[in-house]
Amino acid sequence: MKILLIFLTFYLISAAVRCFSVMGYSGGSVLVDSGRSSTSNTQYLQKQIHTGWNTIINKYEEDQWINKGRFILYLNKNKHIMLFIRELNAQDSGRYRIGISGSEVVEINLDVLVGSCCNVAKTVEVNNGLTATFNCEYSQNHIYYSKIIFKEKKDSIDEMINTTQRKNVRFSLTDKKDQRLMTVVISPLTPNDGGVYLCGVLINKYSYSYSIINTVHLHIKHKVSMSVVSGCSGGRLMIKCEHPQYKTNPKYICKESDGCSERKNPGVQGEWMENGDVSLYDDTRAGVLMVFFRELKAADAGTYRCGVKVSDYTESFTELQLSVTHDANYPKSVTESVYLGGEVNITCQIPEKHEVHFCKELDYHICQTIISSKVTEISGSSERNEERVVTVSISNVSVRDAGVYWCGAETRDTYLTFISLNTKIQLNLIMPPVVRHEGESAEIICPYDSIYKSKPKSLCKGKCSTRDRNPLSETVREEKETKTGRLTLNDDVTAGVFTGTITGLTAEDAGKYWCAVTLETELNYLYTHLIVIMNEELNLIKYERDDVSIQCRHHDEDQKIFCKAHEASMCVKDGVSLETIRDDRFSFSDEASTGVFTVNITDLREEDSGIYWCGAHIITKVHLNVSKDKDRHFSMIIIISVCVILLLIGGFTLTVCKLRHKRRGRLSTSDKRKRKNNTISSCADSRHDSLSDPESVQMNSHDELPTIPSDELLYTAVSFQKHEESISDATVRFSEDEIHSDYATIKFTT
Length: 750
What we know:
Blueprint: H1 2-15, E1 18-25, E2 29-37, E3 44-49, E4 52-57, E5 66-68, E6 71-75, E7 80-85, E8 94-99, E9 105-113, E10 120-127, E11 132-137, E12 147-152, E13 157-162, E14 167-168, E15 171-176, E16 181-186, E17 195-204, E18 209-232, E19 236-242, E20 251-255, E21 273-275, E22 278-283, E23 288-293, E24 302-311, E25 314-325, E26 332-339, E27 344-351, E28 355-361, E29 367-369, E30 375-381, E31 387-394, E32 403-412, E33 416-430, E34 434-437, E35 442-447, E36 457-461, E37 481-484, E38 487-492, E39 497-502, E40 511-518, E41 522-533, E42 538-543, E43 548-553, E44 561-564, H2 568-574, E45 586-591, E46 596-601, E47 610-615, E48 618-627, H3 629-664, H4 669-692, H5 697-701, E49 716-721, E50 731-734, E51 745-749
Parallel strand pairs: 1-9, 10-18, 18-25, 26-33, 33-41, 34-41, 41-48, 42-48, 49-51
Antiparallel strand pairs: 2-7, 2-18, 3-4, 3-8, 5-6, 6-7, 8-9, 11-16, 12-13, 12-17, 14-15, 15-16, 17-18, 19-23, 19-33, 20-24, 21-22, 22-23, 24-25, 27-31, 28-29, 28-32, 30-31, 32-33, 35-39, 36-40, 37-38, 38-39, 40-41, 43-46, 44-47, 45-46, 47-48, 49-50
Organism: Cyprinus carpio carpio
Keywords: Membrane, Signal, Transmembrane, Transmembrane helix
Region (Disordered): 668-707
C-alpha cells in the first residue's frame, strides 16, 4: 500500500498537468497558448466525450501547421504549442487536452457563449501605397480588456500590435472605449500587407488566451499603370496585359462599374477560352493575359482592371479606360478572291504613328497574329495626314490561307498593348472553272488543309452564308461517301480532297459552288464556277455596217460574260466582261425578270466574225459571220439577173399561149357539134363495152374528147350507176349551164 501511494505521488509530480479555462463567443474564434514548448513529434489534441476522449489530431510534427477542419495546432515564434479554433459554436464547449511529450498534458476548459458580438467578417480593399483603416467592434464586457491584432499567415498566426504597444512602425491601434471600437491603421500599404487580420481580446492573461471577435480580409490592389483604350463599335479589340514578374500566377479582367464582382479568367493556361462576350488566353511563357472582344458594343465601354493574383489577398493590375466609338465608315468589310498559288494584295487604313496589326481569325473568332515569310507590308501616306494606307501582300496562296482576316492599329504602353481591328477581309480561294456540255458529268474538286481532315465537309450552290446557305446534300465526313440524286460527295483524306460529282448536267446545274468545312460555323473557303454549254448553237450571218442583237441567258449574276474565244474555258477565265468593253459599238440591256440580257453590236466589221460565248453560267455558242459590202452587191446583181430572166421567160410563154388560142378559134361551130355527136356515140359504145369489161371504162370514156374548145361548146356530164335490178341500166344527163371544164366528166359508180 505504501509502495502504491509513493508511485501515485511520483506520477502526479512528474506528469505536470496544466489546467485553465477559456471563454469564447459563438461565431468567433479562440487562440490559446499552451505555455509548453515542443520537445518531440508525438503531440495530440483530444476532446472529452461521455465515453472517454475523442482524438481530433493524433500526431503533430514539429515546425508544421496542422489543420484539421476548424482546429489548428502550430508553433509560434517562441516555439510554444498554440491551439486555434475558428468559427466557434455551442457544441464546441467542453474539456480539451493537448498531449505535449511523454506524459505532459495541458487541459483546457472551453466555454462558448452564444451572442452576436463575434460573427462579423468584413472585407477591405485598398490600393497599394495608400492607407488602410478598419474598425473592430467589441462588447461591453471587453471594455477594460487588452486588445490585440493578429495576422494569419501561411503556417502561423503572428501578433502585429496591441494596445500596450499602440504603434509599431506602419501599424497603429486605437481603443475607443466610448464607442467600443478598436481602430487599426496601416500606412503606407505594401503588397505584402494583404491577408486575414484577427481582432482579439485578452481573456486570460495567465494563459495568454485570446477571444477573436472580428475577422478582417484586407485585399491590396497594386495599380501598376493606367491606359486609355478605344475601339470601334462592331469591330474587334485585342488587349494584352503584361505581368512578367508573375508569369504562372492566375490572371483576370473585370469591370469596376460592378465592383469587379464578375472576374473573367481563362480558367486554364495556354489555351483560348470563351467567357461571355470575350475570349481569354493566359500565356504563361511570356506572362501575358490576352483579352479579345469578339464584337465591341457601346455597353462594353467603361473602366476595367486587367490584373494578376499575386497572393490570395494581393493583386497587381493595370487600369484601362475603354471608350467605344460609332463610325459609319467602320468596321469596313472587304472580300478578296485569289486563285490557288497566286498572290493577293490587301489594303487598309490605320492612324498615323500606330503600328499595323494584321491577323487571321481562327476558331471561336480569335484573331491570331500573322507571322509568315509569305506576308510583306508596304505602307504609304494617304491624302489625309492623320491616316496612312497599308498594303499587305500574301504570295503563293494555299488552302490554309483562306478565311477571315482583320487589319488595324496597334498601340503599346508600358504594361499594356491594345489592338483595334476595324477592317475585315474575307479571303476566298478560286479553283479554275469547270466547263462541261449539257448532258455530260462534272466534278467539283475541293482541296483542304490537313487540319480539317476530321471535320465534316459540304458542297453548297449559290448563296452560302450561315443564315441562307443551301447545301446540295448532307455533309460528307472522313472516309465516307454520300449520294443524293445526281450528286455524289466523296472525301479522300489521304489526298486532302473532297469531290462533288454531278451527272446528266442541265441548265439548272450551272452556277457558283462553294466548298465548306464545319468548324464552330460553316466556313466557306473556296469556290468555283460550273459552266454548262448548251447544245443548241446560234448562227448569225451579217454584212459590214449592219447591226445585230444577241440574247444571252443568265441567273442574275453580278458579272455577265460576252467574249470571243475558240474555247469556252478560255472565255470564262480570260474573257472580257461587258463592264470592261471599251468599244462604243457594243452595248447591252438587262432584263432580269426574264433571265435574259441582250448584247447589241452596231456598225459590224469583217473582223467581228468568229465564235462568241454568251451568258453567265449558262453559255450559248454564237457563230457570227460578217461579210463585206461588195459581197452584198454581187449577190444583188445575181438576184436581179435571175428576176429579169424569169420575166422574159414568162413573157415569151404568154405570147405563145395567145397565138395558139387564136388558131383554135378558127374552127367552125358545125365541126364542134359534129365532134360532140361523135363523142356522145363513142361514149354510148364505150358504155356497152364497159359493162362487159369494167377495167376499160375509164380509158374508153375519154376517147375522142374534144381538144379545141369554142364559145358554143356544149359541156356534158355522164354518170354510170350500176343497179342490182338491171346491170345494163344507165342514165345520161346533158346540161348547157354547167361550164366548169373543157372536157366531159364521166363517173362510174359501183
